[in-house]
Amino acid sequence: MSEDHKKILEQQLWNIANTLRGKMNADEFRDYILGFIFYKYLSEKMEIFANEILKQDKIKFREITLKTDDAKEFLEAIKEEALEKLGYFLKPEELFTEVAQRGMGDNEELDQFDESKTNFILEDLQKILINIQLSTMGTDSEEDFDNLFEDMDLNSTKLGKTPEARNVIIAKVLTHLDKIDFKLEHTELDVLGDAYEYLIGQFASGAGKKAGEFYTPQEVSKVLAKIVTTGKQKLKSVYDPTCGSGSLLLRVAKEVEAVSNFYGQEMNRTTYNLARMNMILHGVHYRKFDIKQEDTLEHPQHIDQQFEAIVANPPFSAKWSANPLFTSDDRFSQYGKLAPSSKADFAFVQHMIYHLTENGTMAIVLPHGALFRGGAEQHIRTYLIENKNFLDAVIGLPANIFYGTAIPTCIMVFKKCRENPNDILFIDASNDYEKGTQNQIREEDIIKIVSTYRDRVTEKKYSYIANLKEIKENEYNLNIPRYVNSFQEEEPIDLETVSKRIVDINKSIEATEDAISKYCQELGISTPF
Q: Strand pairing of 289-293 and 356-367?
């Protein structure tokens, strides 16, 4: 039942999102529709929470008005509890349903929506979104809700040229959303969370190159998550230094019974807001996640912390300062060289290793060039393998599986305490996928990659266990074809058969030419041969 409801909910939400599609591009209307869904979620959580408190008083939260006896006392008590348990507070009149119904005005049916019958709600709605943030001021959740709705400018002309036009489109969206049951009372289900992830993925697929900034395809996320949770049922912490929308962190949580704390850092402000919304909407308590907004390499925010599981899909070969001052930074100092300023791939690797616990596992997606490029990158690779022996596995992925780029990529897996310290596992999964406009790793491909990694098996043309001596002989070049020969031999050609076939073709051509010549003679024209 939950799977069916999830699919229905996904389609309903996507249909509502398309109400705004004609108004603006994908990454812009994403911020509005996801923001409104989040506001509805907060409202419903607030109402369920408050109604539970008020049960003994036999009154519903939405029924409390200025005329209600002891209204002020009720609201103060609920607010105190809500700020502690939920991290925010909404008044009864600020609930999503109340605003949506006010906006619909005298309209009774959505399919016969009369714009002239709507009520003006833009000002009230903007105040409510600000009030949600203001309710957290001075509390433990203040940072988690700070400017959370700043990307939802209800006065933007992208929504409509006039306030009235903007009001109509917003009223329609809210009314449509109000009709959808998120089923939040079924706490064992995460139907809305899954639907929210679906929407983020849909927006990513339509946002072109920009999508790579905030979203890792779920299939790749599954591989990373299953690798870093191998052999574990619970995690004390999971960290993503380039967390985007937070989807990869949440994916890790699905692979274990429990994650005590989530940590992440994201440079883009809009995406940082989306990550915090995503965490809260998936039921992660505000005290259990710590998402920061800053450039991870230049201004790390979790400086002295270490994490049991680390996952990342950093921007491929991004530029960074490579400032000489970083040679004394604990993250980079022991290597003797910094990653080149034109390619920060190994700077991210070094950063993540610094934050990895002794019993932890990290998995990072990188472009193939990181496996074999020379210079400083070769020096860092050599140090990681020869001096530290942290590299556990290299996994080649298919080309064209990421939004915005068609380049082939790989996953590098690192552990500080390796169960197999004398070798490195290579997996070539680059030929296993479902072909499409954007190639897709199938479920059976995920299972094969993960089982090969966990069982550490060798399979012809797919995986190979290379000892450290062999790696050294290759001068720490990790290019996968050096270790896994996936070359597909063509069937041998029978030249005698080919020769006979050519003879037969020539005879057929001669017969055709003779027939054409006869027709030309009958017509009294010269032959073309």
A: unpaired
pLDDT at 210 (0 to 100): 47
Question: Could you give the CA distance from residue 311 to residue 197 in angstroms, rounded to a whole number?
Answer: 18
Q: Please provide the DSSP assignment of 202-256 as one string.
A: HHHHHSGGGGGGT---HHHHHHHHHHHTTT-SEEEEEEETT-TTSHHHHHHHTTS
DSSP string of 118-171, one letter each residue = PPP-HHHHHHHHHHHHHTTTTSTTHHHHTTTTTT--TT-TTS-SSHHHHHHHHH
Asked whether 397 and 413 are in contact (CB, 8 A), the reply is: no
CATH top-level class of 220-474 = alpha beta
State how far the alpha carbon of 118 is from the alpha carbons of 35, 121, 168, 174, 200, in Å: 22, 9, 7, 12, 30
State the DSSP string of 321-366. Answer: ---GGGGGSTTTGGGSSPPPTT--HHHHHHHHHHTEEEEEEEEEEE
Sheet containing 258-266, strands listed edge to edge, beginning at the edge strand earlier in sequence: 289-293, 258-266, 234-240, 307-312, 356-367, 409-415, 391-396, 423-428, 463-467
Residue 175 has phi, psi (to 5 degrees) of: -65, -45
- CATH code of the region 2-203: 1.20.1260.30
Helices (H), 367-494: 375-382, 443-455, 468-473
- How, if at all, do strands 356-367 and 409-415 pair? antiparallel
pLDDT tens digits, one per residue of 71-111: 889 999 999 999 999 999 999 999 999 999 999 887 766 66
pLDDT of 299 > 50? The answer is yes
Domain ranges of the chain: 2-203, 220-474, 493-529
